[in-house]
């Protein structure tokens, strides 16, 4: 019985630790301007199947810092948790990013909703058009550790203009995932303690 309980605990922990927190990271469902099922806010962006699959297309308004994108807000999170973000990005040759970059950001927040990390409150990666092969999906990922006081994390995917007169073109996002990594160790440790106390 104890062995079966241990196996079930390990299997359940493994599935939890690999769980993607993102709702609809593949942008399935409704298509069109300013829409992305399961995403909290969509601006200068929308979901279409122009690339052969449903994906989020974001664009700028031709001005510096002009941007478009989407976000998901308020994932419960604990301080010390290593969070991994993974996103597929495509720079379309028909509308190449000009004076712009793809901006991937995680914002850790405290119980008052205040950003905790970085100048802009984010752990982020910027992907310039020079790092992308036109019309080719490329996966980008990075990890960040939730700082002390963290109770939640927000995700933002964005097309971001980087220079005056820039911010032209578009960028596509797909297969978005956020996975909290050390949950496995924490839950396994807790399970081990519970089993030991039953002896």
CATH class descriptor name: Mainly Beta
Mean pLDDT equals: 82
Rounded radius of gyration (Å): 19 Å
Q: CATH homologous superfamily - what is it?
A: Galactose-binding domain-like
Largest sheet report: 6 strands, antiparallel
Q: Any guess at the CATH architecture? A: Sandwich
Question: What is the string of SSEs from the N terminus onward?
Answer: HEEEEEEEEEEEH
Q: Which consecutive residue ranges, at least 5 long each, have pLDDT under 50?
A: 4-17, 191-196
Number of domains: 1
CATH fold name = Jelly Rolls
Count of DSSP E strands? Answer: 11
What descriptors fit this protein?
2 helices, 11 strands, alpha+beta, 5-stranded antiparallel β-sheet, 199 residues, Jelly Rolls, globular
Structure description:
The protein has 199 residues and is an alpha+beta fold. The protein has one domain: Jelly Rolls (Sandwich). The longest helix is centred in the N-terminal third of the chain and has 16 residues. It is 16% helix and 39% strand.
Give me the secondary-structure topology.
Blueprint (H helix, E strand, L loop, with lengths): L1 H16 L14 E2 L7 E3 L1 E4 L6 E5 L7 E10 L5 E9 L9 E10 L13 E6 L9 E8 L6 E10 L8 E11 L2 H16 L1
Antiparallel strand pairs: 1-3, 2-5, 3-4, 4-11, 5-10, 6-9, 6-11, 7-8, 7-10
What's this entry about, in short?
The chain is of the alpha+beta class. The chain has two helices and eleven strands, in the order αβββββββββββα. It has one domain: Galactose-binding domain-like (Jelly Rolls, Sandwich), CATH 2.60.120.
């Amino acid at each position: 019985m104890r062995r079966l309980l241990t196996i079930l605990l390990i299997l359940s922990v493994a599935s939890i630790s690999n769980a993607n927190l993102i709702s609809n990271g593949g942008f399935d469902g409704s298509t069109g301007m300013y829409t992305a099922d399961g995403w909290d806010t969509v601006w200068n962006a929308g979901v279409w199947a122009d690339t052969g699959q449903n994906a989020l297309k974001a664009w700028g308004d031709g001005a510096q810092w002009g941007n478009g994108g989407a976000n998901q807000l308020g994932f419960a999170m604990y301080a010390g948790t290593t969070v991994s973000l993974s996103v597929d990005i495509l720079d379309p040759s028909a509308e190449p990013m000009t004076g712009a970059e793809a901006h991937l950001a995680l914002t850790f927040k405290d119980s008052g909703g205040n950003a905790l990390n970085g100048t802009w409150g984010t752990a982020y990666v910027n992907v310039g058009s020079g790092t992308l092969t036109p019309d080719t999906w490329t996966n980008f990922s990075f990890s960040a550790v939730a700082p002390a006081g963290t109770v939640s994390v927000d995700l933002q995917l964005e097309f971001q203009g980087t220079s005056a007169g820039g911010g032209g073109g578009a960028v596509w996002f797909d297969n978005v995932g956020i996975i909290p990594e050390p949950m496995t160790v924490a839950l396994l440790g807790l399970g081990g303690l519970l089993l030991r106390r039953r002896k």
